[in-house]
Amino acid sequence: MELFAIIIGSIFANNVVFSQSLGICPFLGVSNKVGTAAGMGAAVTFVMAISSLVVWMLQYYVLVPLNMEYMQTIVFILVIAALVQMVEIVLKKISPSLYQALGIFLPLITTNCAVLGVALLLVQKEYNLLESVVYATSIALGFALALVIMAGIRERFEIVGVPKGVKGVPIALITAGILAMAFMGFSGLV
Amino acid sequence: MGKNLKIFTDGVLKNNPIFVLVLGMCPTLATTTSAINGMGMGIATLFVLVMSNIVISLLKNVIPDKVRIPAYIVVISSFVTVVQLLMQAYVQDLYNTLGVFIPLIVVNCIILGRAEAFASKNSVGASALDGLGIGLGFTLSLTIIGMVREILGSGSVFGMDLWQGDGALIFILSPGAFFVLGYLMIVFRKLTAKKN
Amino acid sequence: MKSSLKNMVLMLCIIALVCSAAVAGVYQLTKEPIAAAQSQKVVDAIRKVLPAFEDCSERMEVAGCGLYEATTDGKIVGYAVEATSPNGFSGNVTIMVGFTADGTIYNVEVLSQAETPGLGANMASEGNVLVASFVGKVAGEMNMTVKKDGGDVDALTAATISSRAFSEAVSFAYAAFLEVSEENSKGGVDFASLLPAHDTLENVESADGVVYRAILEGQTVGYAIEGSSMKGFNGLVKVLVGFDVDGSIINIAVLEQNETPGLGTKMCDADNALIASLKGKKASATRFALKNEGGDVDALTSATVSSRAYVEAVEAAYQLFKKVNL
Question: N or C: which end of chain A has fewer CB within 10 A?
Fold first, then answer.
């Protein structure tokens, strides 16, 4: 039940993009086409699931025993950066087809603040290992959902006549605002 | 002198990180619920930006090319942690309000972007000025967004009530962040377009 | 600069080392200001959530919360409990809850929160409905969940999640308060009122019941002895009776009872008819029965059954006294 609440809460009610304002840069940058949006979403989900696992173990088996919680930020970002590199290398060797699909998005993930944000949040919320992985995966799914919806809408902007000064980022932001309002409807859910 | 001034003003206007480069969107949207919060976030980022620009510019000749990104990340995240500790010690309320977005300065693309694009190629003085300019542009933008959201959302500026009663709450919530930033961006485009 | 394996590893190590040393240095420097800023905030909050008091204990860790005991002249004024709920809308909600000794919530103060300004953040504003639905309530008699979930708490407008987290934190605080106040009601008997002046109190191992021996400069000066009866109106009545060495009853404290409120419960009052007719009497010369049943003890009004049980419990203590005071 608890896990179910985490899943629904993280995907809809506390959607990482619309309600927590994390991961906005890739949200605005890679939401032009549905295909690329889905690819980015998948890559983020993959990395977040693994990084939450690693970060959790690092926090509770290394940082806490050593009394070095204040080094959190430095350690987490390095681990995430290294992890992304490793995932890239491993993927290239093991599954070239998956690498073809996700590869170009991987380097972008290091600077996706949602990944580091989730790592810090799951420590702050004192989740256990299972909850952490479920939480991170759901957050990433919420991110993918936001990205795909947004891309679907933005594809239409290509066809309709958007005024020059509003084109691009401004119209994307205003659309995101309306979507965020729609997502507020979920807030009573959990 | 003229060149230095240009580096500085470019950061504020022509290369405004938010309205022109569209970088560092997460803190921009999340922490601008009031003018003072936006300003606090801006100043914290400004500090990290100037310091990391200086250090990276100093180190540019000794860092091997292939590991420059990890090296930059270490430097930046150290300064972020320093800011984190300082804020915890002296402005705890602000630190609590900004929450997870203080450590997230690490992944603010502006900082790594400036390190890579400017500090690693220019002198210490110029890098510091660039950091100052971009940082001020960032702080100014955040404060303006925060002000607009605070006026519309809670009817006050910097905590001082402008009128009795509440504002339109939606502007303090995340949809309002998107709206305000979107419309301000349109206004900024309009204004700068005229100048050119 | 050209990259070679040697200089790559070397430079990265140097940078990492210098940076972590610098951070560790700043950490050491800011450690005290951070602690000071935090403790100042805590002290201010304790003052706000409790009635005026003189002294405040150090932080005690109870049931996952931080508990502070506030006293005036050694008497407990109340407890301030710092509790955190991790389930706020954006992260932790930490509050300080003040309980007076009888379990009434005196006030609640928010220590830290990062909820939405204008909505959840209103929990920290003056006179909001959320805090108001706790203040002045007896914690044990309320359901600490929001009305939407069937409880007694008014949620903040459009901030159910924040209100839930707040309520959860109060309930954590209450759990900690309960643990401490229960401990005190067990071990916290006021022996000074039961026994002559003494410097040590020794728990005498006895197969027959609980006996405390009061000692002054090596000499036994009195005993506090537990006695109980199962014949109360609602079962067990347990008392602690203080005797001096001559067998005079100094005072009596009720440890446990489930009698009818307002009638049998009067046995707990400081100067009720029961105590008045036993206090200061030589136990050996007392007939342990109610007056209308041929004894020396005045019964409580309309609580004959409870009074009988009380007398029986005191007599049981006296029987034990005879065994230990040889």
Answer: N
